[in-house]
Structures are given as C-alpha cells and as structure tokens.
Amino acid sequence: MGSHGYGQDDYAMWNDKELILTNGAVRRVISLPGKLGNISTASYKPVAGDFNYFAEASPEFQFEINNKTYSGAGNWKLERIEKITDTYAGRGAAVILLSEDKQLEVTVRYLLYPKLAVVRKNLVIKNLSAVSLQLESVDVEKFKMTNYLATTFSWICHDYGRRRSIGPYDGNMQDALVIVHNSVWSQGIVIGNEASGVVKHTSVFWDEPEILSGLTHKNSRFPFRKYINKGDSFVTPQVFTMLYNTHNDPDEMLNTEVPDFVRKHLGARLSELDKKPTFVYNTWVPFRKDINEKLVMELAKAAADAGMKEFVIDDGWADNYGDWIIDKKKFPNGLKPVFDYIKSLGMKPGLWVSVGSASPDSKVYKAHPDWFVLDENQQPANLHEDDLKMRTACFGTGWSGYINEVLQKLALEYGLEYLKLDFTVVTSTYRFGNKVTGCYAKGHPGHKDHHESLYSNYEEVWKLFDTLHAAKPALFIDCTFETMGGLQLIDYAMLKHAEGNWLSNFMGPDAKVDLRVRNMAWWRSPAMPATALVIGNPEMQDAGWEMHIKSLAGALPIMLGDPRKLSATDLKRYRAYADWLELMDNKYQIMSYRQDLPGFGEPMEGMWDGFMRMNTDSRSGGILGVFRHGGNVSERQVTIKYLDPSKIYLVNEALSGKTISQASGKELAEKGFVVGIGEVYGGELFEVKMK
Fold first, then answer.
1. What is the DSSP string of 50-66?
2. What architecture is domain 270-350+394-428+465-588?
C-alpha cells in the first residue's frame, strides 16, 4: 500500500502497518494485519495526559457466522483503507479486510468529530460465500482492560449513565449509555450504543476483563440474528466511545461532552427541527377513548386560551384498530373540520395512531391475515397484552406499505404536525418472559425466523418514520415506550428516526406526580435530549397545576386533563407560562439543552432538586428550575455553570421578571445566589440572561 496520509484536518493517516486516528482531542492507533494477521487497537487515549484503562492490544470486534467466531484476533488480509465522512461533521477512515477463509469482507468504519474525544464505529459485513450466512453475537467494540485496578476500582454507571454499581455487569435494553469510571484515576470511558431497543447489548467485565458493545448475543433474552444473502452486506449499528482523564465525577461527562455530541453529531431528529414544541396538550386523561367532535372542540378552545402550542387527539377517534376509519358517530363531519378549527386557534394539530395493531374484525385483518404476527405455535398473537381482541402486525410483511399509506394520508390531508405512534411492535412492556415477542411466522419476507424478526421489525419501523419525514420534514413523531418495547425505554436509535418518546403514564393530582416527572427527566437526561422526554399525565385542572408546569419545564412540557374547568384567571396565568416558555426557547433555544443543577442530586422525597437549560454554545443564558420536595430547610445556595465568566448576567423570576441576582458568570459559578422556597413542596423557575 505504501505510506499515505491526508493531514491533521482529516483525522486519519495510515501506512501498511498502522492507522492513526486523531482530532487533537483523542488518539486511537489501529495495528493493521498486512498480508495476513490480526487487527487491534494498539493505543487509545486522550491526546493530553495519561490513560490507564486499555491493555496493549484489544481485538477490535467479534461476531459469529454460522456458529463460527470471527474477531480481530483472527487472520485477515488488509484489502485497502478509504477516507470516509458523514453528514454530521464526522471524518475518518474505513479499513476493508478479507477473512482468511475468503468467506467475508469486513469493513471497519471509524469516525471522529471536532473537539470531542469520541470515536464512532461500526462494521459492514459482506457475504462472499455461495450460501446465506447467519450472523449473531455482534460486538462492534471489544476492549481488553488492564489488570486489577481497572476492573476492581471502577464504577459501572448504567441505566442512561445514572445508576452506579461495581462489576461484573451485563447490560440490557436501558443501556444506550454506560460510563465506566475510576475515581482514583479521574478517568473513564463513555460507551454509547446506537442499536435499537431490546437488541442492544453492552457488558463490562462480564466474562473477561473486557468491555463489549453492540448487538445482543445468541444466548440472551432477546437474541439478535441476521441472515446475509450471497453478495449482500449487513451494516451494524454504530457504537461511540468517549474517553476522559480529568473528571472526578462521571456526571461531568453527562453534562458536557455527551449532550454536545448527541445534539451536534448523532443525527437526532430533534436537532433537525427549526422549531421545537414548547407546550403540548393531549386528550388521553381523563377522557380516554370517550371523545367526540363537540368535546374536542371545547377542549381545543380552552387549551388555546391557556396558550397551548400543540393539541393532540389521543385514542378514541377511529371505529377500529387497523382500518383507521373515523368514527362517524363521534365525528359526524370527519376530522378535517376539527383540525382546521385547532389550526384556526393558533395550535398545531396532532393525532394518536397504533402503528402496528388491528382488530380481528377490521377489513385489513380479514383481507391480509398473513400480515400479522404468529406465536411459536403458529397462532395469531397480540404482543401488546394477553387479549386477542387485538392483533399485532408484523413489519416484515405488506403491513409496512399499508400503514405508511394510512399515516401519509392523515399527515398530509389533515396537515398534522404531531403523530403519537403507539403500542407494541417487537416486545411488550406489559408481558413477562420472552416467548410472546417478535414473530414466529415462517413465510414472512422480512425475516427468516423469530430471532431475526426482533431486529428487522425495528428497522422497518424506522424506515416508516423516515418515509413520513421525507414527505413532511417538520413532523414531530412521538414514538412511545410501548412501541420501543420496554418500560420507559428510549434510546439513540429511536432519536435518529423520531423526535420524542411518550415515556410514562403517571397518575395523581398531588406533588408525587411532580416528583416522578422531575425524577424521570433527571434519570434519562442529559444522556437523552430532555425535549424528547414526553412525560404524562399531569392534568391541567389539578389544584397544583403550576408545579406541574415548573416540573415539566425540564423535559417536554405536556399537559392533559380538562382545561374547561379552569377559571379565566387560571387560563390567563397558564398563557403567561406558555408564552414565557416559548420566549425562552426563542431567546436561548432551551429545548436543545438540559444540565444538572450543581449541588442538587436526584429528585427524591425530603430533598431539594433542580435543573438548568443553559445554551452552552452561545452562553447567552437560559432557564433554571429549583424545587423543595419536603426538604427541612427553606433556602438553598444555587450556583450556575456554563456561562461566560467575564460577562454580567441577571437572574430573573419567571413571569414577574423580578431580578434576584446580578453577577458575572464567574461569580454565579463560584458563589451563586440564595433561593428561598417557603412551601415544603414548592418550586420556582428563573431566567438567566446576559446583561
């Protein structure tokens, strides 16, 4: 091949023996196999300072083909290296390898991004054999750790980087992000897994002193499997890893580099939206399916008076699941006049649809029973719950095209701006065990067997979302946790194809709901964008509704309930909050940011908690929320990070605009200001603005 390089700006240079990846923040050296040998990571560390985690040679990747293991530690021939880029400022190189048995071509793709100590990686596995190959147990990254100190003195921060344990640790569907942190060294590794739902897998020190990240193994609860036909290729999901050696606490990464990467470089749909939702109303609680034209129009008028920006009609508008025909008893004039009325009030209309369900008496089910999931006994199944009054569609059939036409028509004909797409498509939140999952049908074109359906059905759902966005780019798709397949589940795969995720169905009018809202937002952000966290079901008419708004201001503000029950005074105050949130987003783009409030931990009973939504790019300011939830002191010192140290800022109360502090960014970070909350259960919102 000879010596070759493109220079520092291209992040990659190579010769016959090694590939050097560096962007000034991180440096990874890949030992190349040459004519026949192994491929490994020889060195991977931040450019500045030391890094003690990795052994000298990590085997780079591993997977099984027809039960035979292939890894970087095997024998490969280096075919070539190519420069690669993506559309999110990523640049790097692809290493193309030929297996010793000449059955496979494997491309290892590495991407780096400006100013971040991150390497994003995936594999392309091409079948060069004469038969179909069965791919399983894919580790996109496979790192070997140094002895004793790395494995003995590290925290494993799992469940979105928030829950801490010691190893060994075998992850699950909630582990889109894991941090391995050594407090003695002040060093750690962030592992971001971009695989979908229940087929993602990250483990730390489980069978060996190794970190593995990629797709679930064949002996797992929800095994990944993919059949690759002759001449075809399979592109694995990406895994990103971030290294640090200057942080005493892993939460520092959660508040800085991780959200910066997700916002700027992941390819999240939210980042594509010029205008993000700031205040949404949904009809589900308390009305459930008992809705009609008169009620919806009354609710729309009251919601508009309260300043709501989006109005979503939930379940109950159709005469069955599957056909998605408007129930003319409830809506005798159809839905178009209703949506036109919602738009005339200045709100964006939205609609709930079950994306993969049909009633047995629906026309679509009767005409195409072959489009639906079969259980292991080859009988019709409802993956969502144990009730055959509904059937689950398989996206590996003609259902994909059918539901696309239904949703396209709804979105385009009615001018919908928001689609809440719900119910189980792969696994259920409400069933236990792993038998009633995926599809066991033997004749569906999208999967050859049950295990392959677990992966392929997610991929078809993502293609559906992408098609909808191509037709209507500003559409906000709310992919619920039920569709994702796990309780309160959200991940990076979903974020690349949908804008939000209905995460919960919290009930009750008291402060317990507000605590659960704030806890949910804290738990999944900042690893996940806060505006993607759609947290129900606080009701508008609850006695403590102001605390609902204040708590929801740290996620995506969404309210349910009956706004007709509010007084004119309350509606006016609602509008003031709604307009304030919209103004804050216009000024600071708060819906693109969220950070922890320094010195305030997980929201819990008997404590204080809080959040910030500071624009860390412009440093122009943002908002913060401070809450007392049963704490035994009535005031707390509050500090603010991520401001310009040399600039002067005002801290103003929300709505009133009263200034309670004026100080430099440096003073606010070091000394801060006092917030007093007299109520045992209370909270306040503030604007932080550059003077």
1. ---SB-S-B---EEEET
2. Alpha-Beta Barrel (3.20)
